Predict the 3D structure of the following.
Amino acid sequence: MDKFSLILHPRDLRDYIRMFPAARYLPEIILNRVNRYLPPLVLAEIKGVYSAVSQVEGELRCCPLTSRQLRELSPAEAGAKINKAVEQAGKNGAKLVGLGGLTATIGEREAAIGQDTEVAVTRGNYYRIYAALLGILEATRLLEIDLRKANVVILGATGVSGSICARFLAKECRYITLVAWSKNRLEKLALQILYENGLAVKIMGNIKAALREADLVIMDSTALNLPLKVEDLKPGSVVYRLNRPADLLPQALSPRKDILVIDEEIIAVPGKPEFNYDFGFPAGKCPAWMAEVMILTLEKRFAVSSEDGEISLKQVKEIGSLAQKHGFKLAGLRSNGQSITRREIERVKEFASSCKSQENTI
């Protein structure tokens, strides 16, 4: 049976203690020193992942450095720590290793990760983008937002995820506004969308004005430095954050009770999955980057690259087809680490309806 490995890391020392309960008896200053020298450790074995055509098993492996420690180390040092985890996963039989959290971010910069081993490495970006596309369609369905009439604003539109979403949604939407730092790249993307779909999208430099009219705001991770202000958002709108690093604190959108913020998808894994470890998702569910590792292992695709090149819309659609083939499904949406409830959705719908009534009255 083919095997995969998923590499996690603690976000902070509290997360580290949750992973390793015995560590609670050590002083914080000692923990900060000790875990720098610990080898990668296996958290749990994963069983029961199967589809109609294949069955796989896996492991959850921990790179013991916290988010802060990974940032403090030089990229080469942090990469070496992650590479050690990849090497050990390969020795334990894994044919494909998935990097999560900051290990994926560092993996983008350190091409040497996994090069000296026979095991393939992925950061889960293909299915993460596909799941986001599904999530966007689901969110607008739940909130009864008609994409043909909605104003869609994509912040960081020239980023990989943002540009793919823009091109995908151009088939569903009439009104799309692209926002990014580079005007030249925006114009190039706008021309590509016009050529592919015949849709003339709008380019704006005034973020505040764009947000005031937006029913749906999509944020690529490259837009994190754009000056988004919570008071600029339209009541009843949806903010969908793409590729948000797991350890990155969300922007201060929580005071707004009249908007819905989405930053992750919940994916149902086929078979009778047993993760044997609580990583914050419902039983039998996982984030999209984990799902991609399982999909590729079920498909016996172990020659994946480190995703150094550009990700294409065609590749994203292909991983989506493979996910459907093996039975992976969108099972929900998350905000700030919690599943979005029906009550939250209804709350935003009520605000949106109230605002429309006021506009009609005026």
